[in-house]
Amino acid sequence: MSGEQVTYATAGVDTEAGDKAVELMKDAVRATHGPQVLGGVGGFAGLYDASALLGYRKPLLATSTDGVGTKVAIAQALDLHDTIGFDLVGMVVDDIVVVGAKPLFMTDYIACGRVVPERIAGIVRGIAAACAVAGTALVGGETAEHPGLLGPDEYDVAGAATGVVEADSLLGPERVRAGDVLLALGSSGLHSNGYSLVRKVVSVAGWSLDRHVDELGRTLGEELLEPTRVYASDCLALAERAGVAGLHAYSHVTGGGLASNVARVLPQGLVADIDRGGWTLPPIFSLVQRLGQVPWTDLEGTLNLGVGMVAIVAADAVDGVLAHATELGLPAWELGTVRHTDPTTDVVGAPGFVAGTKGVHGGAVQVSGAYRA
User: Does 26 lie in the same domain as 43?
Assistant: First the structure.
């Protein structure tokens, strides 16, 4: 026996710092609470009054969980932590919106090597701000201190959300038809996918995050930390105005890139044709490709390439949806069309042909052409 007295503090856990972090974040969290949220911050469980669901004919609950991935390494390197919450919320609630569900409430989880109250509060303030944009209540969360497992300035974040959609308003592959049109909703940048690839490219190139890049108009670090666009409220507004007869499905373009995520929301027997010449790549994507000599197949299978969400709409609804997107300040353009599969030309393994992704054996996507210079 060494005779050394061991306490929780000497083991690396500071409960007082955790309490201070809660005090610093409470106002931001409360700002997301409407009358449906019961109780205050700090309870064992978040309570949400679900009485509104009694007004539904057949309410379906939708749920999603996700994290931010290695983008947190950029936030940690720059010591800027109040935007990473937008990445977390966007990754979670915008998966729920894909089926037409309104995200009702969300919880978060932060694991860190050491609780720095101001840093934790900054992360949560960002989560709360993004929840406000999405119209979602932040009803609870957890901060866990893991000394020895994570470095003192390391952390990771995750979250989960629950939403609701009327059964007869459910969006998805069952509504998609040949002749439908794909509309791209522009991303704000890299969002929160593919950062392992991007960080490797930056490392191999030997570029620092404080390097000013003329084609980006700012430093590399500022570009890489650009928050994910949160689509939830805008997508719900587009769907409500167009109706289920006009707006048939959404695809959230996250890990796996554009084609693989669109294929997930198409039924068997249908193919979406996407022409790369339909839009100009934002500079960050061209920069990553050039800087790392990344094969285009890797780039397209990893990053969103400027398209963060895709709406699949009836042909006669295109003009209305695009006009409404403009009203909402959401960049949108025609991306492609849906057709029946041609077994003589649509062959798995052919250049640009994508099918059977994410374990979903549905439709397929054919990407062709070249991006605008």
Answer: yes
Domain that includes residue 36, residue range: 14-169
Is residue 153 domain-resident?
Answer: yes
Co-location of 159 and 250 in the same domain: no
The model's pTM = 0.92
- Find how far residue 310's CA is from the centre of its chain: 13
23 and 67 in a single domain? The answer is yes
CA atoms within 13 A on the CB side of 225: 22
Listed residue (358, 306, 352, 302) closest to 332, CA to CA: 306
Q: How many domains does the chain have?
A: 2
CA distance 44 to 115: 20
Say how many C-beta atoms besides its own lie within 10 A of residue 252's C-beta. Answer: 24
- Answer for the pair 24, 119: CB distance below 8 angstroms, yes or no: no
Q: Report pLDDT digits (tens) over 77-120.
A: 999 999 999 999 999 999 999 999 999 999 999 999 998 889 99
Retrieve residue 158's tokens: 């995750």
Q: What is the CA radius of gyration of the chain?
A: 22
For 82, other C-beta atoms within 10 Å of its C-beta total 18
Structural domain includes residue 4: no
